[in-house]
Design brief:
It is found in: Cell membrane. Its main location: membrane. Keywords: Cell membrane, Membrane, Transmembrane, Transmembrane helix, Transport. It is a single chain. With about 475 residues, the chain is an all-alpha fold. The chain is built from 17 helices and no strands.
Length: about 475
């Protein structure tokens, strides 16, 4: 009887412990959900400013090159500090990094707002403002992502990762349509002011949930950014397949950088801001559709084929966006282009991830992201110059070649940009064909297949959740 009673007491204690654990997990998830809602609001605000400033600068200067310069100032600091931000997030209080990042990023927006509202707006001042904002956002984002580990148990990591992606994607899915509608009744200064308010909202949310955010610092390791970046380079150096993949991804990002910059002047050449905003949001939903399709696939046998198909499909629909001045067709082709993007990201990520040791993947992917994102910078530099000084003048001229091309894609304002988009899309599709034939990439696929077969034999098949490795890169 005593033994039976002891067993019952142990079962009761175990149930009590499980109930306490479940309550703690639910409490932590509630705090994290509040934090994600704050990040979603901030993401929408950032999207409003990005959309509004791009149109404002284009209208102010009439130059695609000027828009590219602003984009470089907004993007370059986040690229250069991407490896540094992650290291700092592992060594310092993530709450403080998030709060300071949000507040000082808001300071950069105040600089932009002051210039936009002045009698003589200055492109230089706007560039300084977006640069300052980007600088501090680069320090804040790794700390925000690391709070998943601070707040939650491993069982909730996958769910939390999905929530973070939804918050980040709000910038693409919701903000353009809202910005396009708001610009019909107000000015870009209102959009920037709304963005500033969202930063204070996020800071308030961080303060509310800060009690559960305890930074788990690396023990026994000093802060050596140079050393950790060096380790990231060493992890990828000497592996021809991975180096080839990095080169391929950089070219892909370079091509996609063109559509990011050129789609706005392409549409505004024959349509309005509201139409542009709605079109951008609808196209971005294509990425969600593509992700759902891939998540429904079972037993993917070749990630090389997935990557190649994604590149070819994305490139074809990318090119078709430049063929006709028709909003419906451009929206359709843009949507389909985004549908193929997850195949590029997931295919490339898996091929690299499965050929790197787990203990160096964080540093390696940080360095890979840094390298591939430079493709955006080169694209931003070239897109403006080629558009303003080569392709637009060419398509506005009376040469025989321009006339013949104009019979296919049209002539006049914006058709030089259309031709540039068509060429960039064709280049992307050609890269897809090369990937399928490349021996070094095929070797990565062979090693990945061999590893999968070994896992099946020794441990059984494991379900794998794909996380975003090179977010900005793709």
């Amino acid at each position: 009887m005593n033994q039976r009673g002891g067993i019952q007491n142990m079962e009761i204690q175990n149930r009590d412990l499980q109930n306490i654990e479940i309550k703690d997990r639910n409490k932590s998830m509630k705090k994290f959900t509040i934090l994600v809602v704050g990040q979603l609001i901030s993401s929408v605000g950032s999207g409003l400013t990005d959309f509004g400033l791009a149109i404002y600068v284009l209208a102010l200067t009439g130059s695609v090159t000027a828009t590219c310069i602003v984009s470089i100032c907004a993007f370059l600091p986040s690229i250069l500090l991407a490896p540094v931000g992650g290291v700092l997030a592992d060594h310092y209080d993530r709450r403080a990094m998030m709060i300071l990042g949000e507040l000082f990023s808001g300071l950069g927006l105040f600089i932009c707002l002051a210039s936009v509202m002045s009698a003589k707006p200055s492109l230089v001042v706007i560039c300084i403002g977006v640069g300052v904002s980007s600088l501090f956002m680069a320090l804040m984002e790794p700390a925000f992502k690391a709070t998943i580990t601070d707040l939650l148990s491993e069982e909730d990591f996958a769910k939390a990762g999905g929530m973070v992606q939804i918050a980040n994607n709000a910038k693409l899915l919701i903000a353009p349509a809202i910005a396009g509608l708001l610009l019909q009744i107000t000015s870009v200064s209102t959009l920037i002011f709304i963005d500033i308010l969202t930063f204070f909202t996020t800071v308030f949310v961080i303060v509310v949930v800060k009690k559960g955010m305890v930074t788990k610092r690396r023990e026994g390791a000093g802060l050596s950014i140079h050393l950790e970046m060096k380790e990231g380079i060493a992890a990828i150096r000497g592996k021809s397949g991975i180096v080839a993949m990095i080169i391929i991804m950089t070219i892909v990002v370079f091509c996609l950088g063109f559509v990011q910059i050129l789609c706005k002047p392409l549409i505004l050449a024959f349509a309005g801001k509201t139409q542009l905003g709605i079109l951008a949001s609808v196209c971005a939903f294509g990425m969600m559709a593509g992700s759902i399709v891939i998540s429904c696939l079972k037993n993917t046998k070749s990630y090389r084929k997935m990557l190649s198909l994604g590149l070819i499909g994305c490139g074809i629909f990318f090119s078709l966006m430049g063929v006709k001045q028709n909003l419906f067709l451009i929206t359709l082709f843009g949507f389909m282009m985004f549908v193929f993007m997850p195949a590029i990201q997931i295919g490339a990520e898996v091929l690299i991830r499965k050929n790197l040791p787990n203990e160096v993947q964080g540093r390696a992917f940080g360095m890979i992201s840094f390298i591939t994102q430079m493709g955006y910078i080169f694209a931003y530099i070239l897109a403006g110059i080629l558009s303003d000084y080569v392709f637009e003048p060419f398509m506005s001229g009376n040469s025989m070649l321009a006339i013949q091309i104009g019979k296919v894609i049209g002539s006049g304002e914006g058709r030089g940009i259309a031709l540039l988009i068509l060429i960039a899309g064709m280049a992307l599709a050609i890269v897809g064909v090369i990937v399928f034939k490349l021996k070094s990439v095929n070797m990565l696929e062979s090693l990945t297949t061999l590893e999968s077969e070994t896992i099946k034999e020794t441990e059984g098949i494991k379900n794998e959740t794909f996380v975003e490795a090179c977010k900005e890169g793709f």
